Amino acid sequence: MTAVEAGTATSTGTFTPRPGAAPLSRMIRAQAALETRMLLRNGEQLLLTVVIPTLLLVLFSTVDILDTGTGKAVDFLAPGVLALAVLSTAFTGQAIATGFERRYGVLKRLGASPLPRWGLMTAKTCAVLVTEVLQVALLTAVALALGWSPHGNPVSVALLLLLGTAAFSGLGLLMAGTLRAEATLAAANLVFLLLLVGGGVIVPLGKFPAAAQTVLQYLPISALSDGLRDVLRHGAGLPLADLGILAVWGVLGLGAAAKFFRWE
Amino acid sequence: MRTEPAVEVVGLVKRYGTKTAVDGLDLTVARGRVTAVLGPNGAGKTTTVETCEGYRRPDEGTVRVLGLDPVADAAALRPRVGVMLQSGGVYAGARAEEMLRHTATLHADPVDVGLLVDRLGLGGCGRTPYRRLSGGQQQRLALAMAVVGRPELVFLDEPTAGLDPQARRATWDLVRELRTDGVSVVLTTHFMDEAEQLADDVAIIDGGRVIAQGSPEELCRGGAENSLRFTGRPGLDIASLLKALPPDSTAAELTPGSYRVNGTVGPQLLATVASWCAQNGVMPDAIAVERHTLEDVFLELTGKELRV
Questions:
Q1: Which residue intervals make up region (Disordered) (chain A) (predicted)?
Q2: Are residues B208 and B234 located together in one domain of the fold?
Q3: What is the CATH number of the domain that holds B197?
Q4: A64 touching B (Cβ < 8 Å)
């Protein structure tokens, strides 16, 4: 009874209960904006997502130290660097950020907020996509300035980038949700480096021994860089094999992440 | 249905592997009151609170929060319950006001953010990222985030741990205002004075169970015996004093000339001691009734030895 009396007697108090969730769309928009700001504010992440891909593109396009086959080097490199941009944001960046958010109770605390978990994951995906749009715009501008002449259907490119994002997000979240934050930090950077070298980003897969090639071509990064190259360099329509590989990785990664992700 | 309790825990058991963190705990938290959960480290306070918050599923027993199941009805409860974790909960790179404003955006009718920033002295945090805020600033931000959505019930896990005295007072004032405005508050604390100052009800937890519950006054009256102390000349005849006292009393000379009488301390006992002194020509200096504090009760119930 005291609660009722207290409630009515002070109905104008600063903290008088008036609970309620904001509309779902407003929550997700706000969360996506916050997640994007956190991504873009992080200096180490920017090194990975912006500085390294741009440097690789400029360096290897202008200095002839890499055998990229016939044609302009930038025509080979630009699609690879776009694939690298997706890898850096959807996988490495997201894994590290989410790993530390888990470690420092951010995910736990958000779990007590009115924002549902799927809303949080939607917001994270939006933040990754916004970052990727900025990366693609920047890298495209740089590549065009270096004399890049892209071909192909933009829809195919968008499809590849989206499926690549799904594949890398699943793997990144799987790592962030199961390993310790420090282990995620180390492993995500190591994987970034290994895939940069062994995934057809700047080194053509043809440079590797045949046995290695048969394995490497099934990596998500290889499928993404190869698919983008087929379209943007050779004007291919829909690189179905590469899209298929990415889709399988996406289903496996996101499925495993959904099953094994621990929120604290 | 405002009359049902804010929290009702019955027979809660929670195990981590072979370790039993909570072992048949019963706890009822009334609406519109401040309830303090006290207990030594590892007593099961945080596990209990986190089960009420929906973070853990009970192994046995039932938990109802605002009449709902914290796990099954989580979506309905989340907007109605404010949560302050023991630590963390904020993006390392987020600024205090930015994070508070964001939390407010997730609620339909939040408290004015500027007002909370002023009340909890968060204005000085400026553009400093969360990871570089002081422990006290981080605590105050977490408290602000717990109340900004105008919840009916808030859980505060050690809200004043690591705060300086000024920030502690500001937190206490805020908790009192929450109660005045009709919010139910559950807080865990190690500070007895905090529980004495703030709480309408206190539950002392040890070994995963509630070992005492009541208002601070009830606990102080009930648990430990009160005592009467006085000083006089050394070597008074204790046996003679005991004969004058009611049968349930004890008396002792603690140090030469310093005496303590334990028993049902009241005006009658005081009069008895005074008249015995008069008969024996003793002037009782510094005669004083010692009331037990919550800390005495707590130590008596949970033991004085350090927990490992």
A1: 1-20
A2: no
A3: 3.40.50.300
A4: no
